[in-house]
Design goal:
Layout (H helix, E strand, L loop, with lengths): L1 E4 L2 H14 L4 E7 L8 E6 L32 E6 L6 E7 L21 H12 L4 H11 L7 H16 L4 H11 L2 E7 L6 E8 H9 L4 E6 L9 E7 L5 E8 L9 H7 L6 H25 L11 H4 L2 H6 L4 H10 L22 H4 L6 H13 L2 H15 L32 H4 L6 H21 L42 H9 L7 H14 L1 H4 L3
Antiparallel strand pairs: 1-5, 2-3, 3-4, 4-5, 6-7, 7-10, 8-9, 9-10
């Protein structure tokens, strides 16, 4: 039986698809490109054709035994012959033997050969990985595009890893990161540990973000995010605000400092806490580009609105004037009654910009020269010792080509908290302030009261029989331990001190604990505070 095909690739795809549908894997056994009077030929066979051939030979008179190995080869007779016609470019498929001497494979998922991805599938996988699509979703997309796709999650991970290795091209992680920063025209600074080349601080900023900063320099928010990398270095993010209430990242920095709170959007973008600097940069770069698109889109959609509430100042309240620097309701009503437009002098400069002020050095025609600095460097180089000259050469080489840097990544810090923490599961509420502190007593009396209570509890425990009980680790609060942190003049007026967990809601936790609600009831305290501000907004407006 013979079949005719116009293209060789079409023939191979058809044969392999038919084989996978029936549970067999067809491979190219040998091929002959021809030449002269010979025609091009391709010999196809089953993957289980032939017999196993050992790649290692034992030495003569050796007592070593061959390692026990398994093989899929079973001398399957299935054979196909493909050749190209000389008269035209058509390909002929000739079935020499269409029988197999083994059972068909029921499941081909994860097969070493059928699980391979085509060039188009690999290109799609790489593009989706650049768009920060998760491997699971990439795998689902490949399955939806091709019902005969037999790849597994391991295949996706292997292709991603192979692409990353090709991108690095033998460079270290820091060389790859600095090279990408230069490629995307970032402003980058870094510092190393004294006496070594280990990076301790890393900073980068996008040029478009700096243009936005020059346009809207009035409000900046700085906050740190923890657990974003395997080096346990806090990630500092500087955020600006536009007139359309859109936020944009000004700069990103890894600093060995501790600042409280976190940015939820950046945390969601970074995801895992075991990423490297290089992977963090890829995710942050995508986040910055999306932010800039959203900010520009908000400029186009923003339009002015005016609400007519009359010219009564008392009814207006002038909240918008005091908080945002814009004309309030009664001012707009007065302008409309007079038929005048709102003067720009009556609007804060923050609200008069709907474009990004691009900092263009070519327009300013700045003439900069580094001849004097180079002469100073050359003079110092000639006067320095060999060790200093080598250090200067390293720095100059790094400035000229950041991808050739010799700095190394920080050491991965292990997780100090292993296993699950034991917590206090007691349902008893904490005592209120008025239950612990009486009039005329200070923190020392509270401490003595708690100690006497513990002694009474120990006496009762000694009288009981020996019973196995669970032991939990509980944070002990010593009110007198923090007295030295306050001014001496304030200590006589302090009735109670409470230590709470140090995180972004520590203020609400402290209030909840002092009110007797319990430290974990800080959510209720926050809700009550917001309700108070909403109900009596006029009382809290800054005049």
């Amino acid at each position: 039986m013979k079949f005719v095909f116009d293209i060789k690739d079409e023939l191979l795809i058809w044969v392999r698809d038919i084989g996978r549908t029936n549970g067999f894997v067809i491979v190219i056994r040998t091929s002959d490109y021809g030449g002269g009077r010979k025609r091009q030929r391709i010999y196809l066979a089953c993957e289980r054709s032939g017999k196993y051939r050992s790649r290692k030979k034992l030495k003569d008179d050796s007592k070593d035994l061959l390692k026990q190995t398994g093989t899929k080869k079973c001398k399957c007779p299935f054979d196909l012959n493909v050749y190209k016609l000389k008269t035209n470019d058509k390909w002929i498929l000739n079935i020499v033997c269409g029988l197999h001497n083994h059972l068909a494979t029921e499941h081909l998922q994860g097969h070493s050969y059928t699980g391979r991805l085509s060039a188009n599938e690999k290109s799609l996988l790489v593009d989706m990985s650049k768009s920060l699509v998760r491997p699971k979703e990439i795998h689902i997309t490949l399955k939806q595009r091709d019902a005969l796709n037999m790849s597994t999650m391991k295949t996706v991970y292997n292709v991603r890893h192979r692409y990353r290795v090709l991108q690095e091209a033998g460079r270290s992680q820091m060389q790859q990161l600095l090279g990408e920063l230069v490629k995307h025209k970032y402003i980058e600074r870094h510092r190393c540990e004294e006496g070594s080349m280990t990076v301790t601080d890393l900073f980068w900023a996008y040029l478009v973000s700096l243009d936005l900063l020059r346009t809207f320099p009035r409000a900046l928010i700085m906050d740190c995010t923890y657990k974003t990398n395997r080096y346990q270095i806090p990630l500092l993010e500087i955020v600006g605000v536009t007139l359309t209430h859109m936020t944009f990242s000004v700069a990103i920095s890894y600093l060995q400092i501790e600042v409280e709170s976190a940015h939820a959007r950046l945390k969601r973008q970074l995801g895992s806490s075991q990423t490297t600097f290089e992977i963090s940069f890829e995710k942050i770069h995508c986040l910055l580009e999306l932010q800039h698109i959203q900010v520009k889109a908000s400029f186009e959609k923003k339009s002015e609105r005016a609400n007519l509430v009359g010219v009564d100042v008392a009814a207006c309240g002038c909240v918008l004037r005091h908080t945002h620097g814009l004309s309030c309701a009664h001012e707009i009503a007065d302008y409309m009654r007079q038929g005048h437009s709102i003067p720009l002098s009556n609007i804060h400069v923050h609200w008069t910009r709907l474009t990004i002020c691009v900092h263009n050095l070519k327009v300013e025609k700045l003439e900069l020269s580094c001849i004097v600095e180079l002469e100073m460097i050359l003079k110092r180089f000639n006067e320095s010792a060999i060790a200093t000259q080598l250090g200067m050469l390293k720095k100059l080489r790094e400035i000229a080509n950041p991808a050739s840097t010799f700095v190394i990544k920080p050491v991965v810090k292990p997780n100090p908290h292993r296993g699950h923490k034991k917590i206090d599961t007691s349902c008893r509420r904490n005592l209120c302030a008025f239950e612990l502190v009486d009039d005329g007593h200070d923190s020392q009396s509270t401490l003595a009261y708690s100690q006497s209570k513990k002694k009474r509890a120990l006496k009762v425990f000694d009288k009981k029989q020996k019973v196995k009980t669970k032991t939990y680790r509980k944070r002990t609060s010593l009110p007198s331990a923090y007295a030295g942190d306050f001014l001496p003049m304030l200590i006589p007026f302090i009735k109670l001190m409470k230590d709470v967990d140090g995180e972004e809601n520590c203020g609400f936790r402290a209030i909840a604990g002092l009110l007797g609600l319990g430290e974990n009831d800080w959510v209720q305290v926050r809700r009550d505070l917001l309700l108070e501000l909403n109900n009596y907004r006029d009382e809290y407006v800054i005049r």
